[in-house]
Amino acid sequence: MAKLLLVEDTPEIWDFLSRRLKRREHEVVLAHDGQAGLDMARAEQPQVILLDMNLPVMDGWTVARRLKDDPATAAIPIIALTAHALAGDREKALAAGCDDYHPKPIDFSKLLTQIDAALGAVA
Q: Whole-model pTM above 0.90?
């Protein structure tokens, strides 16, 4: 199906998501901090990035801005994954350059719909 970059520092979440996405025949590339996510996005050129916003080394908002400022990665859709589900958090993620927003805990079927929509936007 598609190459997805999952940037997530919580082992339970990246294990759960990567296994379930691989079962759906997606190729999943993992990064466990913001700088590694930025580097992996540039090196791997995934079709969609699933980006936790609360990351060590570099937060997800900074990662999203840098990816969107770089012509080599600007067109890659980014879905923000965050436990921040307060009023204004969705807008903050979109303003940082994310294309979509998914609050935690993860609703896997909804996330799959968002991934499919992001892939359709790139196709």
A: yes
